[in-house]
Amino acid sequence: MMSMLKTVADTAPVPAAAPVQIQVRGVEKTFAVGAQKIVALQNIDLDIRKGEFVCLLGPSGCGKSTLLNAVAGFQPPTKGTVTVDGRTITEPGPDRGMVFQEYALFPWMTVAQNVAFGLEIKGMSKAEIAERVEWLLQKLHLQDFRNRFPKDLSGGMRQRVAIARVLALDSPILLMDEPFGALDALTRRTLQDELLRIWEEVGKTILFVTHSIEESIYLADRIIVMTYRPGTIKRDVAVDMPRPRDGSAPEFNRLKRELSQMVMEEQQRFSQDEIRSVTAD
């Protein structure tokens, strides 16, 4: 059967109006665990254009979050470079907003105060802060929860607040580390749709880590399939389907089957490595 996967090279080029915004070149990352050296990333080369939605997909131990953290500036690579708009990244910066799976909200602040926090740190006027917070509360359907505290919210609502807080800073790049991984299926789909709607409206560049093959197909322009340790790029897949995407459509499921085969090959390597580690102990 002919493969339904299209690599980036197989598809029409992104218009010249969309320049490369994130560039990863020859990136390697190693960690020392006692006397052992763990190679988490190896020979990573990746270009992400302005306004693209790109998913990093693979099993545990493939380096997805490590690569995301390198782009964020939390963990600079051992070797190679990460640049954003031509500038080498060595530390976090306001041009890259991060959304974690853990909501990371201030429990003593209300929803509105959490969203406003970064704007206050930036020294914006009260009027500007109020206007932007109100806009975001409306966009993310949080207006009725503005005076609630995080403990009073569901997981899905907390993640909406976390996304609103990052969007408030108006960073051109959103880095998202499995932000919907802890949510139930229905809430997850609702927030996926919300994220796509906001992305289409505000034109951010998004780099999104996920274990979910279905989520990556539903969201992404491109899916970067990564190998189990050392993490390398196994395949750069262009998702050539119009939005909104139908998870029951034949082309969606053909792509899902092929991606599943690739990811399961790496999952088996992960499982075998775990068995060897237990046996060695």
UniProtKB/TrEMBL annotation:
It comes from the Bacteria. GO terms for biological process: quaternary ammonium group transport. Transmembrane segments: none annotated. PROSITE patterns: ABC_TRANSPORTER_1, ABC_TRANSPORTER_2. Keywords: ATP-binding, Nucleotide-binding, Plasmid, Transport. Signal peptide: none annotated. Pfam families: ABC_tran (PF00005). One of its GO terms (molecular function) is ATP hydrolysis activity. InterPro entries: AAA+_ATPase, ABC_transporter-like_ATP-bd, ABC_transporter-like_CS, ABC_transporter_ATP-bind, P-loop_NTPase. Residues 22-253 form the ABC transporter domain. SMART domains: AAA. Belongs to the ABC transporter superfamily. This is ABC transporter ATP-binding protein. It comes from Azospirillum oryzae.
